[in-house]
Write a structure and sequence with these properties.
Strand order of the largest sheet: 3-4-5-6
Low-confidence stretches: none
Shape: globular
Distance between the termini: 47 Å
Mean pLDDT: 92
Number of helices: 5
Largest sheet: 4 strands, mixed
Structural class: alpha+beta
Length: about 180
Amino acid sequence: MAKTKNKVVPNEINLNFSNIGNRNDVRKRVIDKFLEEIPGHGKGGAQSKYLYYVETLKSGKRIYLERPANLHNGFDFVVNVEDGEFLTKKGLKKHYPAHHHIFEDLEKKKVESRSKYEQLYELITNVYNCRTEAIDKNLKFNSGYDVDLILKVIKWFFIEQDIRYWNYSGRAMFMSGVPKP
């Protein structure tokens, strides 16, 4: 890890994590990788930082996890979309979606086509239950983000919630916000 004028150049790692199994299997695969990180030695450029490129979208853009997260809490991470633009409530552009971006997008898709949304909801449910990878089955909507992006971001929101809130409801917290068909 290089250091330039108190700025840390992150370690960049390309990885694939399977979503098949159960919540604990998936969570452990990710945590085991995080345990390989080299610890930092303080602040001001002495900390360690990692970018894990974990998904490639059909557009060629990648989804990556940034560690440590903004709050620097344990195994927490931020889910980013390469060159993604997600507006904050103050109108600032960020590379990371918030939960509300996904929920609002899903509501738009539901209004656009209830039958296609039912198919999308089934795909989300299969990812939630760790039955499948986040594959869009060529499902397309005219509104919002590509289904490919939605499913892969949701996969990582589920994993993040399982790591952060394991002793509570984990991924169920995010799933409870997904609009039902």
